[in-house]
Write a structure and sequence with these properties.
With 102 residues, the chain is an all-beta fold. It has one domain: Rieske Iron-sulfur Protein (3-layer Sandwich). Helices cover 0% and strands 42% of the residues. The protein is built from no helices and 9 strands. A 3-stranded antiparallel β-sheet has the order 1-9-8, with no helix packed on it. Strands 2-3-4 form a 3-stranded antiparallel β-sheet, with no helix packed on it.
């Protein structure tokens, strides 16, 4: 059964940046957009395994620092013409608290 766990406060995630959460599944990158939307993806690019947490956040996408692949933060899907997907994790914000479903 899934469980929601508080992982941080919104301000603990840099705007247009990320924070890494360690889980039994591996590292999860939690991103914050300029509009304070919060998303969570496996911290591994589907192309060559680069750490997405080190990538550039722009709009609702992140660009992998290794080879420039762009992924949609809301789905984990690569932006065409690239094909691939990083696992997305359910996340919610209540007040200022960020919760991750594990």
């Amino acid at each position: 059964m899934a469980e929601w766990k508080m992982i941080c406060k919104v301000e603990d995630i840099p705007q247009l940046g990320s924070r890494v959460v360690t889980s039994a599944d591996g590292n999860i990158a939690v991103f914050r957009t300029s509009g304070d939307e919060v998303f969570a993806l496996r911290d591994k690019c589907p192309h060559k395994g680069g750490a997405l947490s080190l990538g550039l956040v722009h709009g609702t996408q992140v660009t992998c620092p290794m080879h420039g692949w762009k992924l949609h933060l809301d789905s984990g899907e690569a932006v065409a013409p690239d094909v691939g997907c990083a696992r997305r994790y359910p996340i919610r914000v209540e007040g200022n608290a960020v919760f991750l479903e594990i």
